[in-house]
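Tokens for chain A. Residues wanted.
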């Protein structure tokens, strides 16, 4: 039988990822598209004819007994409220990343979903990326030997989103480049390592590039429609640097939404004693074998990870079996983010 879903929040991620994916999934009905800005929901319905109804109050979808699941695609701060309301209404939820703005609320969401017996998946889409799946498999097969260190770089020249709006207001986003991009990198590393016990973290966060918002020069700003340079806030990290010790590999990272270095670098280096890899973020990876000195670039197909993510969620709510994006397996990443921000605030190392 078809699963009936509602998509709440019809912004970038809904239009770029979930609505296309859900439109392709044969056993899914999109009964509602909801946005507080009605035009955005109407525009989504025009672009995705599978949408049956447009609403501006998500509680309409929650009150509909036919609806099995909702996709929460609203800004970070509202993930908690919308998801908790959906859980109370007995709906399964796929909530976009980050879980929400801090670990405490994230844990409450996990506990509530588990107590209610509904699925709560998080949009850690990279776990469904074929390259990441293969790297996780390489690790399980011992191709890296002992992974002792992982380096993550997620730095761009000019990429602060919606300056002055929800993305750059800590109370609404939970943070800047670390919670927005860093979560993807740190989560995929923890996934590839097969889970790792966190030991200590240290981190520095900077808000330098648009500290005077009106003086920030850029060529392109994503989410510019939510920007509010005149009256808004920018109190989040545009550059972040940190070090994470675990019982498996240690992780070092640098991230920039903006920096005065005109190089965009998005990669993960996995250093093992038998082999290593450089993953081009969302692309292929290059593997080097220490025994043969052979280095090859993988050329596997990379299916749309959002389609795979949504398909896995629909399967999970159909079978009742938690999949790898279930909040239980993502909470550790939220705990890590909290500790990193705490370290940056206190300017000291944090132990778990
Ligand atoms: N997984 C990924 O790769 C990825 C990529 C981009 C964004 N995201 C996440 O998706 C979320 C949304 O990001 P975005 O870039 O699409 O933002 P966006 O601002 O483009 O879209 C958010 C939409 O939610 C609507 N909205 C806000 N509150 C609402 C409510 N209570 N009810 C209904 N609609 C509401 C807004 O009007 C807006 O249209 C964020 O949490 C972000 O971190 C994930």
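Reply:
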């Amino acid at each position: 039988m078809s699963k009936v879903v509602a998509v709440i929040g019809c912004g970038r991620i809904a239009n770029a990822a979930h609505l296309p994916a859900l439109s392709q999934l044969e056993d899914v009905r999109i009964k509602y598209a909801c946005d507080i800005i009605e035009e955005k929901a109407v525009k989504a319905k025009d672009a995705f004819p599978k949408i049956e109804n447009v609403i501006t109050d998500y509680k309409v979808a929650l009150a509909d007994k036919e609806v099995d699941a909702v996709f929460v695609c609203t800004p970070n701060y509202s993930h908690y409220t919308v998801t908790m309301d959906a859980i109370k209404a007995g709906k399964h939820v796929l909530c976009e990343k980050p879980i929400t703005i801090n670990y405490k609320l994230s844990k409450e969401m996990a506990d509530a979903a588990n107590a209610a017996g509904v699925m709560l998946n998080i949009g850690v889409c990279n776990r469904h990326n074929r390259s990441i799946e293969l790297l996780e498999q390489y690790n399980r097969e011992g191709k890296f030997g002992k992974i002792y260190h992982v380096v993550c770089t997620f730095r761009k020249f000019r990429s602060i989103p919606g300056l002055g709006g929800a993305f750059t207001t800590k109370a609404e986003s939970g943070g800047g480049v670390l919670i927005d991009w860093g979560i993807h990198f740190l989560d995929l590393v923890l996934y590839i390592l097969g889970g790792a016990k966190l030991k200590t973290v240290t981190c520095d966060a900077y808000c330098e590039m648009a500290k005077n918002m009106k003086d920030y020069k850029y060529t392109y700003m994503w989410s510019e429609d939510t920007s509010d340079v005149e009256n808004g806030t920018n109190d989040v990290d545009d550059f972040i640097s940190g070090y994470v010790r675990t019982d498996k590999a240690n992780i070092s990272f640098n991230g920039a939404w903006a920096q005065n270095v005109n190089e965009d670098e998005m990669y993960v280096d996995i250093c093992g004693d038998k082999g290593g890899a450089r993953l081009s973020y969302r692309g292929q990876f290059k593997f080097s074998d220490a025994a043969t000195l052979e280095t090859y670039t993988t050329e596997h197909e990379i299916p749309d990870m959002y389609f795979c993510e949504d398909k896995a969620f629909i399967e999970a709510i159909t079978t009742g079996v938690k999949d790898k994006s279930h909040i239980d397996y993502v909470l550790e990443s939220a705990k890590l983010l909290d500790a990193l921000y705490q370290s940056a605030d206190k300017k000291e190392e944090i132990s778990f």
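The longest strand covers residues 147-155. Residues 177-193 form the longest helix (17 residues).
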